């Protein structure tokens, strides 16, 4: 069984132990994304936690809590990324955010009827934990994978994320629909057990990353090894100025700033939107389980397709599909419409996010990967903040979410226009030249190869 599993992972592009260990972190954290962000907690919040609040007010406060949490990560991640690059502590920072996420997920099991304030505090802190940990996990990708491996490894990680999150969600679906089979009185109690299962799953499947991937060497040595906030901020300012030398990476960030706004809004608010339209709990969970199932092979296919036509063209195709998703979301009325939307999203969601990550990784110097991914996180979280805030404003102004859905067309269209201008090869050359000037080793943290670092 173990040999067959490794053979399958190798066919997905995960040919070395450290690549498999890195991809398993997508498997691990996707439990939080699927259960807490996308499905079970939004339903639990709508039916139990927000009891006593008008529906529109509950939706607005949920969206605002999401925006505040991700805004906090946007502020923290560049500074922590620069600090971890200087100290060689990327894994330590990942572990810190992982611990925060796991503990607050356990805390969600204590949230009862009407506890919307406590529930949103824990939900917000958990969002900080998962988003912060992903910043540092993404930074490790630049250290363990060769340039030609990045697209396939990144998409394989998303495929495993869909598979892992989908398997756990399927088990939770049985628990939620038939709680008495498990000795539980109702779906609310089953939801709290589901939250505990996420904490255990996330912590347990994160272990391979910490065991198999060595900590990258510090960016600085000798007298520069003295770490200080002043030195970290100076380095961060240098990197911000240095983005001028990485114009293609900057263009990609701007494109990502735009189209990720639409993607993030769909991921985080689709369940609440479906609830507002009167779609049943079973249909919502089933449709989002369909997204997870379809996402597994489609993410892998995106990785293979990128190898043939290029990651940028594959991304453009995904954005075209998202335009169709936006129109469908605006006109959606029935559960069948929601299932069609879930199918389309599953086809492109993992591939678009994975290829954005791998494209950016190719255009940043390895010696400052965590720092550059901290900046990537700023752009990602700004969009994650803007989307929920726009959604909340639309609900407050119109009493309906349909007009907010249409606003996503701008983000996908403008993002595609900027993405089309990105010169991928020029971006790669600029990153390699920066590494050469820093004396950075070309070798990734592959099996049998010493960690890259200043020569």
In short:
The protein is an all-alpha fold.
CATH topology: Growth Hormone, Chain: A
**CATH architecture descriptor text:** Up-down Bundle
Shape: globular
Mean pLDDT, to the nearest integer, reads: 79
* CATH H-level superfamily: MFS general substrate transporter like domains
Radius of gyration: 21 Å
The secondary-structure element order is HHHHHHHHHHHHHHHHHH
Number of strands: 0
The low-confidence parts are: 221-227, 445-455
Main beta-sheet annotation: none
Instruction: Please count the helical segments.
Output: 18
What is the CATH level 1 assignment? Mainly Alpha
Which range best describes the helical content: under 10%, 10-25%, 25-40%, 40-55%, 55-70% or over 70%?
Answer: over 70%
Q: How far apart are the termini?
A: 42 Å
Strand content is under 5%
What count of domains describes the coordinates?
Answer: 1
Query: Which class best fits the helix and strand makeup?
Result: mainly alpha
Summarize this structure as a short list of keywords or feature phrases.
455 residues, mainly alpha, Growth Hormone, Chain: A, 18 helices, globular, disordered C terminus
């Amino acid at each position: 069984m173990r040999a067959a599993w490794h053979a399958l992972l190798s066919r997905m592009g995960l040919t070395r132990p450290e690549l498999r260990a890195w991809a398993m972190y997508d498997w691990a954290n996707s439990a939080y994304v699927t259960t807490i962000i996308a499905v079970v907690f939004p339903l639990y919040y709508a039916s139990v936690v927000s009891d006593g609040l008008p529906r529109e007010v509950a939706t607005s406060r949920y969206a605002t809590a999401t925006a505040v949490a991700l805004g906090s990560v946007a502020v923290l991640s560049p500074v922590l990324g620069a600090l971890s690059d200087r100290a060689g502590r990327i894994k330590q920072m990942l572990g810190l955010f992982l611990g925060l996420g796991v503990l607050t997920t356990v805390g969600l099991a204590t949230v009862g009827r009407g506890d919307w304030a406590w529930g949103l505090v824990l939900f917000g802190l958990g969002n900080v934990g998962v988003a912060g940990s992903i910043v540092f996990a993404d930074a490790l990708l630049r250290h363990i994978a060769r340039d030609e491996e990045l697209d396939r490894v990144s998409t394989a990680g998303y495929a495993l994320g869909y598979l892992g999150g989908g398997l756990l969600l399927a088990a939770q679906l049985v628990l939620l629909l038939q709680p008495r089979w498990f000795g539980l009185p109702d779906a609310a109690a089953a939801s709290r057990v589901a939250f505990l299962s996420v904490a255990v799953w996330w912590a347990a499947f994160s272990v391979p990353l910490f065991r198999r991937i060595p900590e990258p060497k510090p960016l600085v040595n000798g007298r520069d090894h003295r770490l200080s906030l002043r030195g970290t901020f100076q380095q961060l300012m240098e990197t911000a100025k240095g983005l001028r030398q990485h114009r293609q990476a900057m263009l990609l960030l701007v494109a990502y700033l735009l189209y990720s706004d639409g993607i993030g809004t769909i991921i985080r608010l689709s369940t609440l939107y479906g609830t507002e339209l009167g779609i049943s709990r079973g249909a919502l969970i089933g449709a989002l389980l369909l997204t997870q199932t379809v996402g597994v092979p489609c993410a892998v296919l995106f990785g293979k397709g990128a190898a043939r036509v290029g990651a940028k063209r594959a991304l453009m195709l995904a954005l075209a599909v998202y335009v169709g998703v936006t129109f469908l979301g605006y006109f959606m009325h029935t559960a069948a419409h929601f299932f069609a939307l879930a199918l389309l999203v599953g086809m492109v969601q993992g591939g678009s996010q994975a290829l954005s990550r791998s494209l950016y990784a190719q255009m940043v110097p390895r010696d400052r990967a965590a720092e550059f991914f901290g900046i990537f996180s700023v752009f990602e979280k700004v969009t994650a903040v803007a989307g929920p805030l726009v959604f909340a404003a639309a609900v407050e102004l119109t009493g309906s979410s349909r007009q907010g859905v249409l606003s996503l067309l701008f983000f996908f269209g403008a993002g595609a226009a900027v993405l089309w201008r990105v010169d991928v090869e020029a971006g790669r050359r600029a990153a390699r030249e920066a590494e050469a000037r820093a004396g950075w080793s070309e070798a990734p943290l592959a099996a049998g190869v010493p960690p890259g670092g200043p020569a």
